[in-house]
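As a warm-up, study this chain.
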Amino acid sequence: MRHRLFRVALASAAALGLAAATAPAVHANPTGPDAVRCPEGYFCLFEGPHQTGRVLLAEDAHIMEDSFQLDELDDIEPPIFPRSARNPLPDDFGCIVRLNDEPNFGGDEQEVSGFGNHELDGRRVGSLTPDCG
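Now compare it with the structure written out below.
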């Protein structure tokens, strides 16, 4: 009986070690070799807080000296549930990016305003539009 218990314990420990070795890495250090990258000049929505986890959406903002072209997305399908964002739009453009929970810019919205990194609350995003002025 003691021999069988030892083998079960050994097999369990080996299985846990294998699972840990093959599990995807958590991106606690965004500058490490496995870090998720958001290309420069792209508006990105991330699965995790502090721009970690999978990039759920990456849209090229086509930023020029005095303008940009971030396309409206009127039906993000399937909808996504981001926890953070990276906004490449310079503050002097005077723009926010509206994230609506329904397609065609309907329902409740959350705003990403200002250049840089932003934390979100994980609510559904079904459409996206820049709003300037």
